[in-house]
Structures are given as C-alpha cells and as structure tokens.
Design brief:
Rossmann fold, binds zinc ion, 34% helix, 20% strand, six-stranded parallel β-sheet, three-stranded antiparallel β-sheet
C-alpha cells in the first residue's frame, strides 16, 4: 500500500460550498481590482478598501459550509494515518472549510481569511470578524499594522520548505479542483512525478498540467472526491 500521500486542493473544492473562485474568467479577480486588493502596495495606499473587501469575504465564509469533498478528505486522513501512512493536505484556499470538516494535517499555503498579521511585530491573531485600520494589535498594542494573513501577489507562499520535503518523499500525489497554472503549486505534480509518485488529478476539466498525471477523474468535487476516497477507505 502507498505510504506517503500529499493532496493539493484549489478553489474548485470550495466552489460547491458557494465560495467564489478567484482566478476564473468569472471569478473574484474579474470583478475586483487585485492590484489594490491583493498586493502589499495596494494595502499601503488603500488599507480601508482592502479591509472592506476581506471583511466581506469573511462574512461570506461564515455562511458557507464544508461540502462532501471536504468531509471525504478528513475521513481519508484518519483512515490513512490509522494504517500507518503519512499524510499532508495542502490547500491554496484561504477559507476554513477543510478545518471545519475535520482535517488536521493541513497547510494553508496562501494564508487564512480568518487570521490577521501585525506588520509592526509579526504577531498572528485570529480574525473572525471585521478588521479596521484603527484596530490595535493584541501583542504590541500599535494600531494600523493589522493586515489579512493571506499571501498576496508577489509574496512567497507559506510553509514551502515543509511542503517540498513532503513532496520529495511522497508515493501518491493528488491534485483536486486546481487549475495547475499558478506557481509554485503548479510545479508540485512535476516534483512528485520526478520522485516516482503516482499522480492523480480530480477536476471538472483537463488542465495545462494534465499530461503529467497518471490518472484523471473528471467531475464535480462533491461527487468525484467521495467516490475516490471510498475506493481507498473501502
Ligand atoms: Zn503587533
């Protein structure tokens, strides 16, 4: 049996929970200006607009629920670990639907909507409600430095060393609901392939990186993911 499993998820897994995708042609960045809302420069010049945007996303997330695909991956994690396997779930999503479904060995490589970070002292706070420019940091007490703890354009994704280490020793890599076009995540399948891992893609459609994968499963995440998990868990 395969021992080390790495799963990468993207916005396609949360779309059926009612959360908009960011980079699709009808996604959030087609309607909002990412240069203002998702760059350090935008935050420096228009912090109120940036907070307003993420406050709205945070309010929307409260109304969303994890779906069958999120729950299936949490079930898979428990079963895999119970059999002595190594497991890591890496998500590009900033929502907390994997967390709420029960996933534990989880990395949010693009940060988390429900966290904020102080630019003065680096302290990371939970943020389930509105963030404003005059909100003081709980650690250093200064106001004006709190920003969404999300990775913006031009910034490095989080925990990359840990992710690469895990990829370099994995036996099975599965990409779910991700277009495969955004680096560095787009390179994960190449690394897994190089170390001889079996690569499975679960998506609505083929992607630019589809030729790398050994197996393709097309379909809605809420159907294709539980079906795949059921085959493994038995
Ligand atoms: Zn601070």
């Amino acid at each position: 049996m395969t021992q080390s499993l790495v799963i990468l998820t993207g916005s396609g897994i949360s779309a059926e929970s009612g959360l908009g995708t960011f980079r699709d042609t009808d996604g959030i960045w087609a309607k909002f200006d990412w240069q203002v809302l998702a760059t350090p420069e935008g935050f420096r010049t228009q912090p109120e607009n940036v907070h307003e945007f993420y406050n709205a996303r945070r309010a929307g997330l409260k109304k969303a629920e994890p779906n069958a695909a999120h729950f299936a991956l949490a079930e898979l994690e428990k079963a895999w670990i119970a059999r002595g396997g190594d497991f890591l779930l890496v998500t590009q999503n900033i929502d907390n639907l994997h967390d709420r479904a029960g996933s534990e060995r989880l990395i949010h490589m693009h940060g988390e909507l429900n966290k904020m970070r102080c630019e003065h002292c680096g302290y990371i706070h939970e943020a389930f409600d509105e963030i404003t420019v005059d909100l003081p940091c709980l650690n250093c007490r200064q106001a004006g430095g709190l920003r969404p703890h999300v990775v913006w354009f031009g910034e490095m994704p989080l925990e990359m060393e840990l992710i690469y280490n895990q990829l370099e020793s994995c036996d099975l890599f599965v990409a779910i609901g991700t277009s495969g076009t955004v680096y560095p995540a787009a390179g994960f399948s190449q690394i897994a392939k190089q170390v001889g891992a079996r690569c499975i893609e679960i998506n609505l459609d083929d992607t630019e990186t589809s030729p790398i994968f050994d197996e393709h499963r097309k379909g809605m995440a809420t159907q294709a993911v539980p079906a795949w998990v059921a085959e493994i868990v038995g």
